[in-house]
Amino acid sequence: MPLSAIRPPSADTPRTPAPADVLRTVSDARTPVFVTVHANGRRRYSYWRPLDSTTGRGGCYAALPTAECDELLSAGRIALGDPLTDPTKTTYRVRPVRTPQTPARVPSTPARPAPAPARDRVRAA
């Protein structure tokens, strides 16, 4: 690949994932996400990134952006589990909040058609 094909990220490109990407990571059952709240109040959301055998990357803890996670928490999209307390920090499991699925279109009860007016039938003789 020529060097001209590699472009540096522009200044207006966000470097953090969108809240939808964070929610997708939290919702993945294979990726347990935790938040650690330190004694000084600092919070850190993180998960274990498994080793990818094809790229050789991973096998380490990865941090999620705190601002996006706090936004999801305040919006009620994620919830914290039971605390695990340590003298210097408290750790919570982060889980997605399951919202009931609503149909895209609410079916209305069909209106019954009015009965047809009675017709006088004349028989041909």
Q: Would you kindly provide a written description of the structure presented here, covering whatever features stand out?
A:
This protein has 125 residues and is an alpha+beta fold. It has a domain at 17-96. It has helices at residues 19-27, 66-74, and strands at residues 33-38, 43-49, 60-64, 78-85, 89-96. Strand 1 (33-38) and strand 2 form a beta hairpin. It starts with 18 loop residues before the first helix and ends in a 29-residue tail after the last strand. 8% of the residues are buried. The model is unreliable at 1-11 (pLDDT under 50).
User: How many individual β-strands?
Assistant: 5
Order of helices and strands: HEEEHEE
Q: Could you say which overall geometry the principal axes of the C-alpha atoms support?
A: elongated
Distance between the termini: 94 Å
**CA-atom Rg in angstroms:** 28 Å
**What is the arithmetic mean of pLDDT?**
80
Largest sheet: 5 strands, antiparallel
Number of H/I helices:
2
Q: Which residues form runs of ≥5 with pLDDT under 50?
A: 1-11
What fraction of the residues are assigned to beta strands by DSSP?
Answer: 25-35%
Helix content class: 10-25%
Structural class: alpha+beta
Q: Strands across the major sheet, in which order?
A: 3-2-1-5-4
In short:
With 125 residues, the chain is an alpha+beta fold.
Question: What structural keywords apply?
Answer:
single chain, 125 residues, alpha+beta, 5 strands, 27% strand, elongated, disordered N terminus
Sequence-ordered SSE layout with sheet pairings:
Layout: H1 19-27, E1 33-38, E2 43-49, E3 60-64, H2 66-74, E4 78-85, E5 89-96
Antiparallel strand pairs: 1-2, 1-5, 2-3, 4-5
Protein name: Cell envelope biogenesis protein OmpA
Organism: Streptomyces galilaeus
Region (Disordered): 80-125
